[in-house]
Amino acid sequence: MKLPLLLALATLPLMSQAQYRSNAWCPDQGDGTYINPVINADYSDPDVCVGASGEDFYLTASSFNCIPGLPILHSKDLVNWEIVGYALKELKPKDVFDKTAHGMGVWAPCIRYHNGEYYIYWGDPDYGVFMVKTKDPAGQWDEPVCVIPGKGMIDTSPLWDEDGRCYLVNGWAGSRAGFKSVLSVRELSADGTRAISDPVIVFDGNNEHRTAEGPKFYKRDGWYWIMCPAGGVPTGWQLAMRSKSPYGPYEHKIVLAQGKTDINGPHQGGWVHTAQGEDWFMHFQDKGPYGRVVHLQPVNWVKGWPVMGVDKDGDLCGDPVLRYKKPNVGKSYPIQNPVESDEFNTPVLGKQWQWHSNYNQFYGQPTPYGFFRLYTHKLSENFVNLWEAPNLLLQKTPADAFTATAKIKFAAKKENQYGGIIMMGLDYSALVVKRVGDKFQLQQITCHKADKNKPETVKVLAELNPTDRDKVNYEPAIYEEIYLRLTVKEGAKLRFSYSKNGKKFEEVGDEFQMREGKWIGAKFGFVAEEPAGKGVTGFVDVDWIRVTK
Q1: What does the buried/exposed string (b/e) look like for 87-106 if buried means 16 or more CB atoms within 10 Å of the residue's CB?
Q2: I want to staple 342 with a disulfide (CB 3.0 to 4.6 A). Which of 248, 350, 386, 515 is the partner?
Q3: Is the pTM of this model over 0.90?
Q4: What does the alpha-carbon distance between residue 67 and residue 338 come to, in Å, rounded to a whole number?
Q5: Average model confidence (pLDDT) for the chain?
Q6: Above 90 in pLDDT, residue 104?
Q7: pLDDT tens digits, one per residue of 259-301
Q8: Are 396 and 41 in contact, with CB atoms under 8 Å apart?
Q9: Local structure of 36: helix, strand or coil
């Protein structure tokens, strides 16, 4: 039953704190152990810090061109995580990011707590090094500051030393800088807002440790540490390097690798030291169409080196764990997973949702009436496929296998307007209701190599009579109320189905092999478009979406 406006507004603060247990993936096994991944969703290049109280953990990750950007997740035990907000409302320059700019934007951020404030640094490979800060990571963040303008700088991480001086380590994007696999350190002003020295190369991994990138800067017991992945995203390993000076020279060791496990490329993440004296490392694993999911590894210091995972052969390089005892954080906390399902019962968009560009109010808006309204976007005159569509309302996949069912009501005011559900990536497939004449067609729209400007294919699945019509003559619409479902199986294989009553579903269309997006995993959600449209728009009223096993 939909909440009235006053009740919805009154419960907003409470709902943000409500426990949510996913039906698709829950890492907490309820017996003092957890299974990896602890976040089975595409939070690529994760970084984590300990909060002001010493009892809170905050995580952020790459968001590239997706907005809102810089997701903020909170946990009390490093296993149970909740999305609490975003640090970035829009990307600049607006003339670039007000439309789709796949793979651009926020690369490999770093979150730190320093002197009463939380900081996030990231490199935009096209525009420079940026920083945002706040006193409340779940609240509003300041406007971004450009710390170092220029191309090619990525994967930035600050370190405030005991004497108050601030240093920054970064990697380099070969596509912009012309070189890669090296790490550089420079000094910033004490407030971290500008560079006050030139960069110094502290590590060159071009031979033994190609694709050295994603560094994180720490200090422990008088040693400066740089934690750094190498070897490539799906196949690499984790390095730890140490020096008595922030500028090196650094000695290094491989401290985490796949070994004989099924966890490929375990690397790039954040190290935390808990109030109880334990050390943990959060990193990603590349799972192709599902993106880069987040794992949690124990860290044990052996002979002065941080061995991650479990080192069975004593070579100071650990293998990643699949199941392990939960961190000792002093007490037990309830299960909490990132929210996927959404009843759209409040006039605030759920935190799981992102757009493919800076948000525009004409894409859609929440309502107090129990639905979200997504407007049909007018595509370009030379439209080829949805790679250009900025108004896709999408979220990350939550598991290797899951089902997402949505109830929608589509209002078409013009010929060829359509709306429905989509799985978006370099390849995509959508199940949509499209107005053709005075009726609707149920269609599967599929595109392979969308990023290469390849055309869509359309398969007509059924003809549908409208479930309602406007009785006025002024810009009348015809309506289709329908239930749409996508089912993802192991191996990232997707099938669609639909229902007229929400009880009996009919499987339709062709099986679709999911594929990742540009530096992100495939994402699912809602689409509403009008090819080369002019004049009045249609809309999709999304009543709810429910994600299950």
Answers
A1: bbeebbeeebbbbbbbebbb
A2: 350
A3: yes
A4: 17
A5: 96
A6: yes
A7: 999 999 999 999 999 999 999 999 999 999 999 999 999 999 9
A8: yes
A9: coil
Go through 341-378 and write b for each residue having 16 or more CB atoms within 10 A of its CB, e for each that does not: bbebbbeebbbbbbbbbbbeeebbebbbbbbbbbbbbb
Taking the C-alpha atoms of residue 299 and residue 307, their distance in angstroms, rounded to an integer, is 6
Query: How many of the other CB atoms lie within 10 Å of CB of 501?
Result: 9
Which residue carries 């989509």 as its tokens? Answer: 422
Phi, psi for 94 (deg, rounded to 5): -65, -30
Characterize 176-202 residue by residue with b for buried, 16 or more Cβ atoms within 10 angstroms of its Cβ, and e for exposed. Answer: bbeebbbbbbbbbeeebeebeeebeeb
The three state secondary structure string of 205-254 is: CCCCCCCCCCCEEEEECCEEEEEEEECCCCCCEEEEEEECCCCCCCEEEE
Three-state secondary-structure class, residue 95: helix
pLDDT confidence tier of residue 534, bands split at 50, 70 and 90: confident
Distance CA 407, CA 343 (A): 10
341 φ, ψ (degrees, to nearest 5): -65, 155
- In this prediction, residue 3 carries a pLDDT of 43
Q: What is the pLDDT of residues 442-469, one digit of tens each?
A: 999 999 999 999 999 999 999 999 999 9
HSE-up of 511 (CA within 13 Å, CB side)?
7
Strand order in the sheet with 182-188: 153-160, 166-172, 182-188, 200-204
* DSSP code per residue over 153-171: EEEEEEEE-TTS-EEEEEE
User: Rounded CA gap, 149 and 157, in Å?
Assistant: 16
Token readout for 519 is: 């530096």
Using alpha carbons, select from 245, 217, 204, 222 the residue that is nearest to residue 112: 217
**Strand 292-302 vs strand 279-286: parallel, antiparallel, or unpaired?**
antiparallel
In terms of Cα–Cα distance, which of 405, 353, 371, 390 is closest to 529? 390
Burial of 253 (0-12, 13-18, 19+ CB in 10 A): middle
Inter-residue contact 478 to 464 (CB < 8 Å): no
Hey, CA dihedral for 74, 79, 82, 83, is it positive or negative? positive
Residue whose token pair is 């993802």: 488
Judged against a pLDDT cut of 90, whether residue 130 lies above it is answered with yes
Task: Say if residues 62 and 82 touch (Cβ distance below 8 Å).
Answer: no
